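S1.2 Input.
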Amino acid sequence: MHSDMPGQTTKTECPTGTTVLGDELHIVCHCPSTKVVLEKFTDKFQRLTRLLDLPSFASFTPDQMTRLVLGNPPPPVLNKNLKRWITEATPICGEFTYALRMHVTSLHPVTVDWSSDDDAALPSDSNDDFSPILLPPGFQPASVPPPSNMLVPHDPAGKQMIG
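S1.3 Output.
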């Protein structure tokens, strides 16, 4: 797979020899190098489907699993309780996506190719475009990040951040 981003080229190969690289279904469910991430999260998704009164996660097809782990609610959720899906599934799907990205990055670090025919595309050596982030009057950065439950939608702990 080659990146379309200017100046960056990434080559990724799958040990299965498939020619469908980059396909979400393959990466999440079939590729021996990356499906280990789904295996680590299977219990969490199993609990999620049980909590939302859905069929067992293990009974889903690979296509259905892929859609679910990437945050797409199954059709029964759309008819029943989309708000609960958002509250319960968003943190798990986000955690899964982050873990998958970190795993893929560890397998295939990005190689940056700065060569270009366009001299304007070369990185600038000066800091002319640097501008610090200025906080509004009366605000200051937190000394430590908030606990993760404060960032979960609809969690009462998040109300502590207001004021």
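S1.4 Remarks. The longest helix spans residues 82-107.
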